[in-house]
């Protein structure tokens, strides 16, 4: 391996250390790495900017806008009020989260869905008297599982599909092309969440409001 390879590998390791420290925002670290790679000539300016034109990345950004619109229009509040309601047990509360969140994640992308739902679920947990520690992991995992239902469900699918389109010139995969595989995985995963997590997750007292 030549010096460019070792240099790029060292940059990747340094970026991992910096992001793991928690002192620097991940996007700033990665942009800095991109600038250094471009300035050193390891990648060209066209290669450095190519990722920003990836159709998967553009789709993720657009879905963040859609999720923000749902949040600010009160759509999340309606979901909490009329669908989640007032469960009496932890398992019932987790079931009311996992099913709608998995469905939403299949069509809105799991990352913006989780970002939108966290404050709403936190407030809901205080209302029903169930610790947020019992609900946040099921929220995250169900969003991940829901993301496997469609091509737009998770950023990974979109980025890989975008790269496939660029490399082959084909139109790429359709939105439901992975559903036959993702749906059984999601069903088994959600069943495992509801079977094991009510007892496995800690019951921590919530003393602060979200974001305080």
From TrEMBL:
GO terms for cellular component: plasma membrane. Residues 17-206 form the Citrate transporter-like domain. It is a multi-pass membrane protein. InterPro entries: Cit_transptr-like_dom (IPR004680), DASS-Related_Transporters (IPR051679). The lineage of its organism: unclassified sequences, metagenomes, ecological metagenomes. The keyword rRNA-binding does not apply. The chain crosses the membrane at residues 28-45, 57-84, 135-153, 173-197. It comes from marine sediment metagenome. It holds the Pfam family CitMHS. It is found in: Membrane. This is Citrate transporter-like domain-containing protein. Keywords: Membrane, Repeat, Transmembrane, Transmembrane helix, Transport. GO terms for biological process: transmembrane transport.
């Amino acid at each position: 391996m030549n010096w460019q390879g070792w240099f790029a590998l060292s940059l990747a390791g340094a970026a991992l250390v910096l992001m793991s420290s928690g002192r620097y925002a991940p996007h700033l670290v990665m942009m800095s790495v991109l600038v250094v790679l471009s300035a050193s000539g390891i990648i060209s300016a066209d290669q450095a900017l190519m990722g920003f034109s990836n159709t998967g990345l553009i789709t993720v950004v657009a879905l963040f806008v859609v999720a923000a619109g749902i949040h600010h229009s009160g759509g999340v509040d309606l979901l909490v009020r009329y669908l989640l309601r007032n469960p009496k047990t932890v398992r019932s509360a987790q079931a009311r989260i996992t099913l709608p969140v998995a469905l939403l994640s299949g069509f809105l992308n799991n990352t913006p869905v989780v970002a939108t739902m966290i404050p709403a679920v936190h407030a809901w947990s205080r209302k029903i008297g169930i610790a947020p520690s019992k609900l946040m992991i099921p929220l995250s995992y169900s969003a991940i599982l829901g993301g496997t239902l469609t091509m737009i469900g998770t950023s990974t699918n979109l980025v890989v599909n975008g790269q496939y389109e660029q490399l082959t010139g084909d139109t790429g995969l359709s939105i439901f092309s992975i559903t036959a595989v993702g749906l059984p995985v999601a069903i088994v995963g959600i069943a495992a969440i509801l079977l094991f997590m009510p007892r496995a997750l800690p019951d921590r007292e919530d003393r602060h409001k979200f974001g305080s």
